[in-house]
Amino acid sequence: MGKPKIGASTLAFLSDPFEKLLAELSRFPTKHIELIDDGLHELNSERVRLLKTVAKTNGLTYYVHAPFVEANIAPISNDFLKTAMERLKRSLFYASQLEAKVWVFHPGVAPSIGDPTATNFYYGLAWKRNVESVRHILKLAEDMSVNAAMENCCYRRLVKTVEETKQFLEEVGTEVKLVFDAAHANLYGDPNLYFNRFKRQIVHMHACDNHGTVDEHGDIGNGNINWEALAKSVEDSGFDGAIICESLGNLQKNVEALKTIFDFRPKRMKLGSR
Questions:
Q1: In terms of Cα–Cα distance, which of 169, 166, 153, 148 is closest to 108?
Q2: Cα separation, 213 vs 155, whole angstroms
Q3: What is the DSSP string of the chain?
Q4: What confidence category does residue 2 fall into, taking pLDDT thresholds of 50, 70 and 90?
Q5: What distance in Å separates the CA atoms of residue 101 and residue 63, rounded to the nearest whole number?
Q6: 268: pLDDT strictly greater than 60
Q7: What is the rounded CA–CA span in Å between residue 88 and residue 139?
Q8: Least confident of 28-42, 138-152, 203-217, 252-266
Q9: What is the percent of the chain with per-residue pLDDT over 90, rounded to a whole number?
């Protein structure tokens, strides 16, 4: 049985120019890096070439997070959906070029949360569109030999809780791999319960901390997530994918904290045991 690889996201650098991020990659405290294909860091052919050179020189392994700031796979408008899907298809292509281990994507956004009338009227349509879009995304990913996985999210996203995830998996009608975000799960209950309920589908993890009310992206241990209990569940499950640090604080400190938490060394046999 293997053990998880501790990695880090480029989230903390998202407002920096791509050139600055590129220079920082060789100084990351881990060889497993999740690149965010969004905003100032949107991937293109030249950036992929540069990233591959950095990876080869420094022995890096990449994971790619699909666009999420403006990409919504469950809009009511067909025109908006077409634009979002074209953008995600491009992201999948570049993830393939980078030989990314996992391509992470978000579920769609629930419509007009601030308007109860619009929410009640369109929520069902958005949910159905989300299911259809995910089926399409998974087919595109399969055609490009990309390991795509959907993240449990928060706030206006459609798939957040245990019950919503259960319903979604039942309706989509095909195998869906999941990215478990411990901090997102903590906003809706015990992250440990979410992990154990879907551990067979989980292939990738995100880790940062919060106090159960706001998605703070805080330092590991500076919130109320029970990391000891979660680590026990992760170890018992045999999970050997990547656990990506998404804390916005000191990257070195938080990566080291995760390495300590998820250090599954063989248990010593008690004296006299066989």
A1: 153
A2: 11
A3: ---PEEEEESGGGTTS-HHHHHHHGGGSSSSEEEEE-SGGG---HHHHHHHHHHHHHHT-EEEEEPP-SS--SS-S-HHHHHHHHHHHHHHHHHHHHTT-S-EEE---BPS-TT-HHHHHHHHHHHHHHHHHHHHHHHHHHHHTT--EEEEP--TTBS--SHHHHHHHHHHH-S---EEEEHHHHHTTS-HHHHHHHHTTTEEEEEE-B--SSS---BPTTSSS--HHHHHHHHHHHT--SEEEE--SS-HHHHHHHHHHHT--PPPPPPTT--
A4: confident
A5: 5
A6: no
A7: 12
A8: 252-266
A9: 86
Q: How far apart are CA 100 and CA 96, in angstroms?
A: 6
Is pTM beyond 0.85? Reply is yes
The span from the CA of 180 to the CA of 233, in Å, is 13
- pLDDT higher than 80, residue 274: no
How many other CB atoms are found less than 10 A from the CB of residue 78? 9
Looking at the predicted structure, is the pLDDT value of residue 116 above 80?
no
- Please state the separation of Cα 139 from the chain's center in Å: 19
Candidates 3.20.20.150, 3.40.720.10, 3.90.550.10, 3.80.10.10; correct CATH number of 5-261? 3.20.20.150
In the chain the first and final C-alpha atoms are separated, in Å, by 20
